[in-house]
Amino acid sequence: MRPRALPYSPDRGRWRFAITPFRVVLLLIVAVTLALLGYRFVAGLGAVTNLSDKWPWSFWTWWKLSAVSLAGAGYFTMFMIYFLGRERYRDVERGAFIVSMLGYLMLCAALIIDLGQWYNAYRPLYQWGYHSVMFELFWCVGSYTVVQVVEFFVIFEERVPWKPLNKVLHKIHAPLLLLACFLPIFHQSALVSLYVITKGRLDPLWWSQLLPVYAVATFVYIGPPVILLENVIANRTYGRPVHMRSIADMLPVTAFMMFVYLVTRIVDYGVRGVFDELVSGSLYGNLALIELGIGVALPMVMFANRDLRMSKHAMVAASLLAIFGTWSFRFNVTMTGLVESIGVGWYVPSLMETVIALGLGAAVCVAYLFIVENFPIYTETDVAACEAAMAEAKAKELAARPRPRMAVLPADEVRELERAGRH
Amino acid sequence: MTTKDLRQQDPDVGAPSEGERAGVSRRSFLRAATVAAGTTAILSHTATSAGASELVPEDDLEELAREHADDPGMLIDITKCVGCGKCVRACKLNNDLGWRADQPATGAEAELASSNWTVVRAEPVETVEESRLGPRRRAGRRYVKFQCLHCLEPACASACFVAALRKTEEGAVVYDGNRCVGCRYCLLACPFGVPTFEWDETFGRVQKCDLCADRTSQGEPTACAEACPQGAITFGRRGDLLEEANRRIASDDDYVPHVYGETEAGGTSVLYLSDVPFEELGFRTGVAVDPLPTYTWEVTRILPPFAAGFSVTILALWARRQKILRERAEAEGTSQEEVGS
Fold first, then answer.
1. What is the ipTM of this complex?
2. Entry pTM
3. Could you tell me the domains of chain B?
């Protein structure tokens, strides 16, 4: 497939954003979402969602938790480079970082959309309900998002140089990284420990005091699979090479963490005596088996296999499975596990609710494309590779185009023209 | 070859070589499995047996009940209620709630909603009576007056991150809409499904019974208790009500030998008596006996020590990397000088 656009390079200085049919679709979804959000902010939550007093949280909550789990990509690379010294992961660093930052910005937007009195959202700054998990969440998500946006200014400053900003950024770089390493662990755990208080109602297949541990584990190990997918998408969009060497180096870490996670889940079932329910063949037991079997065990085995690890297709499949596992864990905690105790059946999101969720995702995609095309995200070597891919594709296209043939006019017309010329 | 030489060859700072990586991995998998299993067994100690406290010792639960013995509460005797709905009317008038056609407050469909702080729900039941001809089934009906139970340790207030919901000194669980952000975590946290949300408002707030805090703080009974013509709602101090409830159970075999609210969620200020098993009347049974905030506390209390340990670890890792980077810069500096000379 021919790359449709080029990533940013200092040689091409002006701001731009290539428009392709796919991007038109994305922008349309974003536009519809904005309109729906306008309606939501006027008419209230009940008008756009199917939420009720029985299901006060559901689809959007799942979507938020799932989308922001992908930010593990940025966390994983950051930790590996700045705290474990794996300098070679620099080639995937910024791409992963952008995915994470956008994930968090989306989470913040989604949280505000989901609030009844959103204009009060600043109040936890001085109204301290410190005993709530949500309080921890508010502070950590808020400050981590700020940290990431400030980190983005490092990239921004490279594009729009401004000395004073550079000086400040240089000074706060170290504390910023330390904070960035510290904060996510706490609120990623908090995101799912919100459900610890549903003890007795959330199905024991998913209620556990270890919910925060599971949340952090799935958040961190999902990093490398997300980086791989980001690489593959960047490859298809810009012709950027897939950094299989770095990624194949990271994937065993994922396999290892998945293994520990799986053991923990199973021992936890054993200790709490819910192992029977897991293998009982009931709907919920089977959903948990699918989550752990297809979403954790299978990709774990694939990541751990040295031969498979060199195959891009196998790794993409395994990465998708790993994301499925992470998302279905969050799905089961926020939805499946509560169906029984809520007792009004499964939650079915409304059309508008679904479109808004998709629209937030589409906005993240558009923002990613825009940032890549206007800021130095990819390394110089990668940009050169993208340019080469583009040039090659253009040359191929030119070669494949049918040659223009000479016009052949009928003989009598030629004669007529000749006559006209003579006179 | 020293480690330092290796480092200079490898682009990574302090990264182990391929051989080291491969050699460690299989053994470390096994070791990790053992560690994980052990830690899980320790951390995940809760048994799922219903009815017994899991985290809080029995003595502490009794102490909690003693502390709140003077709190205002209500004893609702389902056997005495005839479903007239006067309590609902009194509640709506006292709290200025209004009537909505789509939110019935009495009848079979009655449910707590933004305009219903209390409801009287009609529940069809089947009772079995002993007669000379053997057991006889009788179709009947019970009326369940439902509202906030005012937990001794309310899950909703512990879940509220802006302290909009709180338990007052007197003992009522009250809500301040001006502080609320409308996140609805209280709706999720409440084990009884009490708080409701204004879904059709532009700026939705939470609605729930406040035990007529305006009246009870003046020493008056709640509006619903005052309005009841049947004496089905007794207003009083929780300790006294509990005694009264147990006396009624002891004096009449028809009562289910359980006071709903005595132990549920650590105990509630509103208590129920019934002659029909509570689960048949739509009550949530199997509610944890420990106060629900304890479960969250069990998780959050690990955080400060964990945070401390984690900070030390990342600081150490950070310092180590800085040192290696410095060393490398020095090494590169000297080699460049050599080339230069």
1. 0.88
2. 0.88
3. 69-299 (3.30.70.20)
